Every structure is written in structure tokens, then in C-alpha cells.
């Protein structure tokens, strides 16, 4: 007789859930059973397909300061064999050092040239007053000429004021940004876009959001980075010294982020794990401080079932998780969870003949477009927040290389006026705004589609200030582990989500009950519990 194999129910098949599943397969005898409410794996890191045009929902650069994450990705999809046009080598800030990847150096690992990671150049800019500004901002002659001397002088004075007399205590995101950029640059380059994203004034958003997403970046850091780069300093390529917002190259799956996570899912199933798509977890039965059973509903048929499990790794929205406990969580915990705010997301995919800005150029493939991955639209006259150019993420996302494939990103709340627009009206709004800001003529648009993502961004306002009561309650459930962005109500990047999943698996294997190591992920720049 042998002991029956233990089972872990993993709620959600996004980056965190799939990472946890594969790590359990590789490192333990615990069998992962994933439940995904949608009909696709990858979560927000999936790749949507619209008549052959592939769309990266939200945009995902594959770069991390974690050696473990970078190696993990490369084990799933090896690096491309680089063409001789790169002069034999190409540098990328990689594995905490500048790595020179040699042409063809990984060719022996590549069995299928369609299943590879590409090395891509990163360019993100701010679009304001019909002009493009570098992001991160640079204090150079180009910026001065575009801003105008008067606005530039105001920016310098306000930055000096912020440096000499910073706002203390730093309570809000407004405080956080003004302390790092000054009030003039904050109003010019950050306020409008940030308030589009969150739908509330920056003064009402916790400064913790800035600590999560912007971390140590400041105008001083951006200027120093530019100076070191211009001087060719030896330290310019060290990942531990280069903020992620300054990374200039990154890895990217040839067919978008969903390609990598689909490969992970295939490996999980090949190893004996199970992934049930269109299955939503609706109840968690708690007994003696442990989850004893998981109640699941088949989204397609409505059929329900209950499964006994040994562990639960949850990436589902905390708001929904807390409501699923039986017996019910304490009233105070339920109240905080019910009032947790989220920001929802709409991407409008646009296929066009060309982009029309005066700086647009024809690519080698024949498309007339701008060179950016992302464009942050600061213009307060439009609701468009950010624009992706999918050609520049990977040419393989675009079946007709002479056409331009765009993703227009809108931020909203479920059931607000934007969310309630029909697909046809949403497409019409996107095309109108593209024309208004002077990037595409409506007559050049060939096709459009709409993708809606609820609870895309956990928000740092409202009842979030009381989130500690939820953590205290859920941490006390011994075999429950909260990981990932929505699972922790924390605006993590994909690599942070993976690291929280790894930490949860570490705890399961070691029998550790304290979950602080999971919550400590992404509290500082180096992903260490202590500096």
C-alpha cells in the first residue's frame, strides 16, 4: 500500500497559477488541478487572435531582475538564433548582468524556430501636444525644445522645490510623484494618464501604488542613467543597478505572451496535472482552519461538483474569494473585501493601412508606423489611455506585414458608460480618438474588434487601507495560499506573480505555515526579504 497522492486545487490558469502547477509537478508529488473560469489559459497574459492578428492584452515585456524567473522562461521557450545582421552579438540586460548573446549560440537548443523568445528593443514614449517625449523623461535639448523654455524652467524650479522640501508624510500617489518629479512635470506628464487609469484623483490613491509600480525611479535616476549610458559606463548594463523602467531590451515570445503560457499548460498536462477550462470555483469549505473541499461550477453547463483537496493556491480576485468561504468569513472581513476597488480594461484592436504622424516611417516589411511598443496618451481631451503597436512587439503578431496592428487601451469600471458601450460604438470611439490625436486617419482603418477584461487592475484606494484584516484571516487558513495580482490584490508584474507562486510551492514542500515570504515579494527593488 502506498499513501494516496495529495492534490492542490489551483484557482486560475494565469502566470501565477500555471507557475505553481509546473513547480509542483517538477518538485513534489502533489498533483495540481487547475480551475480556470474562462476558456483560455494565460489570464491577462494571454494572446487574443482576431482574424490572424494577435493581440497582447496589456503588453508584457519578458524581463526580470530575478535570475530564477529569466531562467524559467528560457527553459520554456529558448532564445532565438540571432541573424548575422546583428554583427555576431547583441546585448541585453539579463540575469543581473549585461549578457552578450552570440549569434546562433542557442541554435542547438532550438528544435522549432516558431517556438522561441525574440530579443526586442524597447521604446515607450509619452504623447502630449502632438509631440513625443521620452519615457522615462530625459533632461536634454530635445525635451527642452518640445516643452518650451518657460515650461521647462517651471519644471526645473518645481523639481528643485520638491527635492529641497518634499511632501511629508508621503500619503498619496500625488505626493509620491511630485516628490520625484516636481509639480510641473507631474501635471504635464503623469496626472492626466494616471487619473484615466484609476478614475479618481491621484490625491486619493495610496502612495503604495507608486512603490509597487514605479519603485525607485525618479528624474534624478533617469538623468543619471542617460549620463552613464552616454559615457558608456561599465555599470550601465547591470540589472541590479538599472531600474526596470529603464530596460532597453527585453525578451518576447514570437507569437505573444500566450504562446509561453500555452506551452506551460501543455507541460503541466503532459506531466499528469489537469486543467479544467470554463470551470469557476464558487465555494471553499473551511474546517479546523483548513480548506477541506472546493465547490466548482461548469460555466458551460451549470453543473456543480465538490472535490476534497489538500491545498488551495488562489489567484482569484480577493473580493470573490472572501465571499466563497463556508462558513462565512467574519462580517468585517467580508465588508472590506466587498468594497475592494478594481479597475476594468477594454482593448480595441485596430488594423489600419498606415499611421499618419509626421515621424512615422516605413519598415523593412512595408508598414508605415511609429517605432514604439507603447505610447502613453497624456491628452486630456480623449479617453484613450495607452496605445500599443503590435508590429513592434513581434512581426509575427501581424499576418500582413504591410498593415499596422494597434491596441487602444481604455480604463473603466464595470457598468460605467464606457463599459456599457456596444462593441460597434466602442470601435467608433476608438477610431474617432485616433484621428483626433493625429495618429491614424479613419479612412485608413480596415477592421476593429473589442476585448473586455474585468478586474484587470486591483486598486489602491477605498477599503484597501483595511486590507490587513483580510490578510490576517486568510493567512490563518493553513493550506490556503494567495498568489498573483488579483490573488493578493497587489499590482504585481508577471514576474512578481510567478515568484509568489514559487514561494507558495516552497511553503507546501517544506510545510511552512507562515506566509510572510509570499507577501514580501516585490516590497523592494531586488526581490529580497532584506537588503
CATH homologous superfamily caption of the largest domain: FAD/NAD(P)-binding domain
What structural class results from the helix and strand content? alpha/beta
Overall form: globular
Q: DSSP strand (E) fraction?
A: 15-25%
Number of domains: 4
Stretches where pLDDT is under 50 for at least 5 consecutive residues are 93-97, 101-107, 233-246, 524-531
Q: Quick one: biggest sheet?
A: 7 strands, mixed
The second-level CATH architecture of the largest domain is 3-Layer(bba) Sandwich
Report the oligomer. single chain
- Named CATH topology of the largest domain: FAD/NAD(P)-binding domain
Cα(first) to Cα(last) distance is: 48 Å
Quickly name the level 1 CATH class of the largest domain.
Alpha Beta
Please report the number of helical segments. Answer: 18
Q: Over all CA atoms, what is the radius of gyration?
A: 23 Å
How much helix, percentage-wise, in residues?
Answer: 25-40%
Q: List the strand order in the largest sheet.
A: 9-8-20-21-22-17-23
Please tally the β strands and state the result. 24
Q: Average pLDDT, to the nearest integer?
A: 87
Key features of this structure:
single chain, 531 residues, alpha/beta, FAD/NAD(P)-binding domain, seven-stranded mixed beta sheet, five-stranded parallel beta sheet, 24 strands, 25% strand, globular
Tell me what you see in this structure.
There is one protein chain. The protein has 531 residues and is an alpha/beta fold. The chain has four domains: 7-44 and 260-340 and 462-519, FAD/NAD(P)-binding domain (3-Layer(bba) Sandwich), CATH 3.50.50; 61-122 and 247-255, no CATH class; 134-234, no CATH class; 342-458, Protoporphyrinogen oxidase, mitochondrial, domain 2 (Polyamine Oxidase, Chain A, domain 2, Alpha-Beta Complex), CATH 3.90.660.20. The protein has 18 helices and 24 strands. The strands form seven sheets. It has a seven-stranded mixed beta sheet with strand order 9-8-20-21-22-17-23, sandwiched between helices. A hairpin with a 2-residue loop joins strand 12 and strand 13. The chain is globular, with a radius of gyration of 23 Å. The protein starts with 6 loop residues before the first strand and ends in a 12-residue tail after the last helix. The model is unreliable at 93-97, 101-107, 233-246 and 524-531 (pLDDT under 50).
Amino acid at each position: 500500500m502506498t499513501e494516496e497522492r495529495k492534490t492542490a486545487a489551483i484557482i486560475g490558469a494565469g502566470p501565477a497559477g500555471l507557475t505553481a502547477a509546473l513547480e509542483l509537478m517538477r518538485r513534489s508529488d502533489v498533483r495540481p488541478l487547475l480551475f480556470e473560469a474562462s476558456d483560455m489559459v494565460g489570464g491577462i497574459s494571454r494572446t487574443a487572435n482576431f482574424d490572424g492578428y494577435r493581440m497582447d492584452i496589456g503588453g508584457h515585456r519578458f524581463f526580470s531582475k530575478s535570475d530564477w524567473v529569466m531562467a524559467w522562461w528560457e527553459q520554456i521557450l529558448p532564445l532565438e538564433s540571432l541573424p548575422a545582421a546583428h554583427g555576431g552579438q547583441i546585448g541585453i540586460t539579463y540575469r543581473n548582468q549585461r549578457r552578450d548573446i552570440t549569434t546562433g549560440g542557442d541554435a542547438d537548443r532550438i528544435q522549432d524556430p516558431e517556438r522561441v523568445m525574440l530579443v526586442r528593443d524597447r521604446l515607450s514614449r509619452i504623447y502630449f501636444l502632438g509631440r513625443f517625449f521620452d519615457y522615462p523623461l530625459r533632461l536634454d535639448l530635445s525635451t527642452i525644445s518640445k516643452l518650451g523654455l518657460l515650461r521647462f524652467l517651471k519644471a526645473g524650479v518645481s523639481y528643485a522645490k520638491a527635492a529641497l522640501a518634499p511632501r511629508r508624510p508621503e500619503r498619496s500617489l500625488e505626493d509620491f510623484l511630485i516628490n520625484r518629479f516636481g509639480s510641473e512635470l507631474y501635471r504635464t506628464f503623469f496626472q492626466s494618464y494616471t487619473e484615466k487609469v484609476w478614475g479618481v484623483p491621484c490625491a486619493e490613491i495610496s502612495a503604495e501604488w507608486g512603490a509597487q509600480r514605479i519603485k525607485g525611479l525618479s528624474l534624478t535616476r533617469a538623468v543619471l542613467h542617460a549620463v552613464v549610458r552616454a559615457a558608456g559606463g561599465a555599470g550601465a548594463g547591470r540589472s541590479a543597478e538599472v531600474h526596470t523602467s529603464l530596460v532597453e531590451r527585453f525578451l518576447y515570445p514570437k507569437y505573444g505572451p500566450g504562446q509561453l503560457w500555452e506551452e506551460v499548460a501543455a507541460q503541466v498536462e503532459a506531466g499528469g496535472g489537469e486543467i479544467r477550462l470554463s470551470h469557476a470555483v464558487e465555494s471553499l469549505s473551511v474546517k479546523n482552519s483548513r480548506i477541506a473541499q472546493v465547490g466548482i461550477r461548469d460555466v458551460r453547463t451549470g453543473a456543480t461538483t465538490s472535490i476534497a483537496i489538500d491545498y488551495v493556491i488562489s489567484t482569484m480576485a480577493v473580493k470573490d474569494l472572501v465571499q466563497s468561504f463556508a462558513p462565512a468569513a467574519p462580517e468585517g472581513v467580508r465588508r472590506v473585501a466587498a468594497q475592494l476597488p478594481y479597475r476594468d480594461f477594454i482593448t480595441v484592436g485596430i488594423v489600419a493601412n498606415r499611421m499618419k504622424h509626421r515621424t512615422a516611417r516605413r519598415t523593412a516589411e512595408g508598414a508605415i508606423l511609429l517605432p514604439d511598443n507603447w505610447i502613453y496618451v497624456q491628452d486630456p481631451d480623449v479617453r484613450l489611455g495607452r496605445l500599443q503597436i503590435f508590429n513592434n512587439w513581434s512581426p509575427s503578431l501581424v499576418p500582413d506585414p504591410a498593415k499596422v496592428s494597434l491596441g487602444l487601451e481604455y480604463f473603466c469600471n464595470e457598468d460605467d458608460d464606457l463599459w456599457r458601450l456596444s462593441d460597434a460604438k466602442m470601435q467608433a470611439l476608438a477610431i474617432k480618438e485616433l484621428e483626433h490625436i493625429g495618429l491614424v486617419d479613419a479612412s485608413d482603418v480596415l477592421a476593429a474588434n473589442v476585448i473586455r477584461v474585468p478586474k484587470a487592475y486591483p486598486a489602491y484606494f477605498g477599503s484597501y487601507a483595511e486590507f490587513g484584516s483580510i490578510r490576517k484571516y486568510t493567512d490563518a487558513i493553513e493550506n490556503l495560499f494567495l498568489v498573483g495580482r488579483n490573488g493578493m490584490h497587489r499590482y504585481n508584474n508577471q514576474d512578481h506573480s510567478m515568484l509568489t507562486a514559487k514561494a507558495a510551492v516552497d511553503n507546501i514542500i517544506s510545510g511552512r505555515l507562515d506566509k510572510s515570504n509570499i507577501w514580501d515579494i516585490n516590497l523592494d527593488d531586488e526581490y529580497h526579504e532584506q537588503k
